[in-house]
Write a structure and sequence with these properties.
This protein has 334 residues and is of the alpha/beta class. It has 2 domains: 149 residues, Isopropylmalate Dehydrogenase, CATH 3.40.718; 150 residues, Isopropylmalate Dehydrogenase, CATH 3.40.718. 46% of the residues lie in helices and 15% in strands. The longest helix has 26 residues. The two termini are 41 Å apart. InterPro entries: FA_synthesis (IPR003664), Phospholipid_synth_PlsX-like (IPR012281). Pfam families: FA_synthesis. It is an enzyme of class 2 (transferase). Pathway: Lipid metabolism; phospholipid metabolism. It is found in: Cytoplasm.
């Protein structure tokens, strides 16, 4: 597999990006990496070889750049070139920890949507208490959605969980303010009716408070609601760990207790650590594009690379396309 990597995207680039790539190259012997970025900053960490190609550029899309303007004006930026390589057939997938909006825009303008998908979704795996995690679609690609979009999210999520996570019958839930049918906005009510008709394991509405308990394997919602859920989970986790750290180091007695409980705390942290779950897939594009977390360390970026490779190896994009087409034909025959 040939992977295009935006070496300059993210808070910890290029070091964490390159270290993650080195781990991936050691793990997957069939992986080839194309690094796009400042060669002078890349080569101290990794040298060009038969499995590593470096494309030099000093242009970067910054976090505060306007996505559409940046993609159109900075065509030599590391992120844009990574996506363009996929479009040109010189890479099979792309990964970036850079500007989310710019990556989404580049994916849409350059790679294009999967046939039958009206709106792509930004879709991360989030942790659950039992450690399996759940897929949330959408977390910000589209702030406004139609019922048909949520149905497409559900279909794409089902394909991903079957092919990448190995689930036989993923439970599909609709994010809502109550578990009862008929609850919520007009969008939620209409989507509920449509999802009930689909050949999916639709379990109905799920509430935000139950997500970390593993209430569903795939949760669909509009991008506005999904982004609120994502940021709330991230913020709560960071606050809780900070609170625990302050409390456990506040006295000698607490420090001694913390030393005894350190293995247990480490297991809890690992279970809830986003870095083990990979990045957010831009589902609905014509090729795998993964958005790694902006603050990704080496492990988190490796997980994003692993996600991109699995999506390519398991032909997730092709399966999504086939599933959407089969669903559309089925609806036309009714």
């Amino acid at each position: 597999m040939r992977l295009a990597v935006d070496a300059m995207g993210g808070d910890n680039a290029p070091e964490s990006v390159l270290q993650g790539c080195i781990t991936a190259l050691d793990t997957y012997k069939d992986l080839q990496v194309i690094l796009i970025g400042d060669k002078d900053k890349i080569t101290p960490y990794i040298e060009q070889s038969d499995r590593v190609k470096i494309i030099h550029t000093t242009t970067v899309i910054d976090a505060d750049d306007s996505p559409v303007k940046a993609v159109r004006r900075k065509k030599d930026a590391s992120m844009v070139q990574a996506v363009q390589l996929v479009k040109d057939g010189k890479a099979d997938a792309a990964v970036s920890a850079g500007n989310t909006g710019a990556l989404m825009t580049a994916g849409l303008l350059i790679i294009g949507r999967t046939r039958g998908i009206e709106r792509p979704a930004l879709s991360p795996m989030l942790p659950t208490m039992e450690g399996k995690g759940f897929l949330l679609l959408d977390v910000g690609a589209n702030m406004e959605a139609k019922p048909a979009h949520l149905v497409q999210y559900a279909l794409m999520g089902d394909v991903y969980m079957r092919n990448v996570r190995g689930m036989d019958s993923p439970r599909i839930g609709l994010l809502n303010v109550g578990a009862e049918a008929g609850k919520g906005t007009e969008l939620a009510k209409a989507a509920y009716e449509e999802l009930e008709k689909m050949p999916l394991n639709f379990i109905g509405n799920v509430e935000a408070r139950d997500l970390l308990d593993g209430a569903a394997d795939v949760v669909v919602c509009d991008g506005f609601s999904g982004n609120l859920v994502l940021k709330t989970i991230e913020g709560t986790a960071l606050s809780l760990f900070a609170l625990l750290k302050d409390e456990l180091t506040s006295s000698l007695k607490n420090k001694l207790a913390a030393g005894v409980l350190k293995p247990a705390f480490k297991r809890v942290k690992n279970k809830m650590d986003y870095s083990e779950y990979g990045g957010a897939g831009l589902f609905g594009l014509n090729a795998p594009v993964i958005k790694a977390h902006g603050s990704s360390d080496a492990q988190a970026f490796f997980s994003a690379v692993r996600q991109a490779k699995t999506m390519h190896d398991e032909k997730v994009i092709d399966t999504i396309r086939e599933t959407i087409e089969a669903t559309k034909k089925s609806e036309e025959q009714l």
